[in-house]
């Protein structure tokens, strides 16, 4: 049993804040999504992004980029979202 699994037995959280880990992700990979979401959200807040604005997301296929796209559309009400990515992505 890993330290993370052991500590999880003693952690309290509201059920509405929890989600199942996708089986194709390790614990560390799943946990890293929280940081990506926080970085994306803070960036949009600092930029004073708001409903009806358009946004260009560089590296839109990356972990933070994908979160910026989703937050801009779903939470901040972007009117248009454009993104760049490498040809491999």
Automatic annotation (TrEMBL):
Q: Does the keyword Nucleotide-binding apply?
A: no
Task: Name the SUPFAM superfamilies for this protein.
Answer: NAD(P)-binding Rossmann-fold domains
What are this entry's molecular-function GO terms?
A: oxidoreductase activity, acting on the CH-CH group of donors, NAD or NADP as acceptor
Keywords assigned: Oxidoreductase
Q: Which domain of life is it from?
A: Eukaryota
> Record's family?
Belongs to the zinc-containing alcohol dehydrogenase family. Quinone oxidoreductase subfamily.
Q: What is this protein called?
A: Alcohol dehydrogenase superfamily, zinc-type
Taxonomic lineage per UniProt? Eukaryota, Viridiplantae, Streptophyta, Embryophyta, Tracheophyta
